[in-house]
Write a structure and sequence with these properties.
- The protein is α+β, with helices and mostly antiparallel strands.
- The protein has one domain.
- Helices cover 43% and strands 13% of the residues.
- It is built from 6 helices and 4 strands; from the N terminus they run H-E-E-H-H-H-H-H-E-E.
- Helix 4 runs parallel beside helix 6.
Amino acid sequence: MTTLNSAESASWEKLALALPKLDITMYVSTTSGFVRQITAINYSAWKLRLRLFLQFEGLWSVVDPSNQNEKDRAGELFEARNKKAFLILALTISDTLVGSIMECNTARQAWEVLERQHGSGKSGIKDTAGFDSGKYVRLHSSGSVGGK
């Protein structure tokens, strides 16, 4: 069984906890004499940050099969890398979104579930990329930033 030494573990753990979580936030605006509520998710920003982080850690091939060969998908090393990538992914989503990946067994499955639900505005929730939150008051957030 492949394990991480304590220095490796502390290194990625600090970085993973520093990543903003994938989060659904409620905003409200009272401009124009009426209340307008917007639900937004930071999916595009989260997806970019997590992909870059997993690439930096040498784990992206676990999530993206186009970066794998047959040898990469077999054995204890792959399983250890998959567990590490899945843990990092799970630590970077809010508690309200964890339920959507509970049945997943791999980091790839979890990534695909989140992509199906939130990629390209599929969930009907506005992505915060390009969203002018300055016109709104933050009403509710389902999670937090930095794992706190």
